[in-house]
Amino acid sequence: MALTEQAAAAATTAPRVGAQGSRGPGAGAAAGTAAGAEGILRRQAQRESAARTYARSLPIVPVRARGLTIEGADGRRYLDCLSGAGTLALGHNHPVVLEAIRGVLDSGAPLHVLDLATPVKDAFTTELFANLPAGLASDARIQFCGPAGTDAVEAALKLVRTATGRTGLLTFTGAYHGMTAGALDASGGAGDVRVTRLPYPQDYRCPFGVGGAEGARLGARWTESLLDDPKGGVPTPAAMIVEPVQGEGGVNPSPDAWLRRMREITAARGIPLIADEVQTGVGRTGAFWGVDHAGVVPDVMVLSKAIGGSLPLAVIVYRAELDVWAPGAHAGTFRGNQLAMAAGTATLAYVRQNGLAERAAALGERMLSALRDLASAHPCIGDVRGRGLMLGVELVDPDTGAAAPVFAAAVRQECLARGLIVELGGRHSTVVRLLPPLTLTDEQATAVLDRLADAIPAAARRPH
Ligand code: PMP
Fold first, then answer.
1. Could you tell me if 170 and 237 are in contact, meaning their C-beta atoms sit under 8 angstroms apart?
2. pTM given for the model
3. Quick check: 225 pLDDT over 80?
4. 302 CA distance to ligand 1 centroid (A)?
5. Which of 82, 88, 172, 176 gets mutated to test ligand 1 (max ligand atoms within 8 A of its CB)?
6. What class does CATH assign to 5-80+357-460?
7. Which fold has domain 97-353?
């Protein structure tokens, strides 16, 4: 598929923050050149931790960004479909976000306020509550947590353990909830004695070998029988934690009927249901929250990423009945980021006022259908799936159907060479993930798909 002229123009005409050749904020004397960028990358490799992640597969030095587009210090432009790991609902440096941040800076308001009340925080809470599922908003409490998604997961676990007096946790295969100890235990890569792992529905790699509604039904049946088996080894847990669409796990949307069943199973047994909407929230999946598709009202929602409008912010919102922990039970110095709250309020309001969830649903459907066409032309694409603008393309060995991690890494590299930033997810890092901003235009979507369509055969032509 060739890059259409229109799409090419859309891809390369993103507004620039600075004039050609001028240096943006933070761009050092030599940074605006290819040689300057190389020096920065070399020093990063020498000085930063072996645990660094995105920096390894994306050796670029961003100096300017707007909307979908990032410009590197070497002058190259990229279409950013990673969006800060799904954070940037409005893309980079959206004018309403910048205006909100400037408003706080220019007002003379304190930037550090611990967890004190401020007009900025009050406005954020009001906007957030206005967007919550109605059944939760009517009687919700909010806890501002440390700044990352994983902090909010920890807070949620502590909340339900305190409220129920129980310790166990129901989690799912392939889950990702963060990198701190409790969140890591709840994730699919780790195991903790207090965690019971349940099968998350997947069509393509269904653990029961049937996929579809039947695979999901069997998973729910297993969940129910385990909880009701007095010798099943699973005492009533403190909660079940679930992602409405697994992101890092490989873009697996849960069927609505299955999520409703999880709600029924937990409600019937007095088990709080925690929805981890860190990645699915704020319109990403084509509804304001991932749980909205199924009409499910969780007891606790874990929110971060998009709610901070590109700055660090994390909260839990939960039913007031659970609010029985002691003053100071979950504290932290950095819970009052005024800039993030202002940027978040602007983002939430913009998504609501401009119907961006509906836009994500419609555009996501179209992109999914284009990806399905691509899959029929390339046997190395085992599956395409997603919901809204959370899309995944699973790459496999065309002969055996086995996971193809080396090939997937080559596709990511070929995308970058064509000015497209994507990341990999899934059990074997073989799922190309597309998480574009919800403001993506039709022309930009075409440009993204064209670049991916070119990258896949280019990667396949590499010797391996
Ligand atoms: N939960 C989910 C569903 C996530 O996708 C992530 C991050 N990818 C987290 C929690 C952890 O968020 P953070 O990286 O901000 O700690």
1. yes
2. 0.93
3. yes
4. 10
5. 176
6. alpha beta
7. Aspartate Aminotransferase; domain 2 (3.40.640)
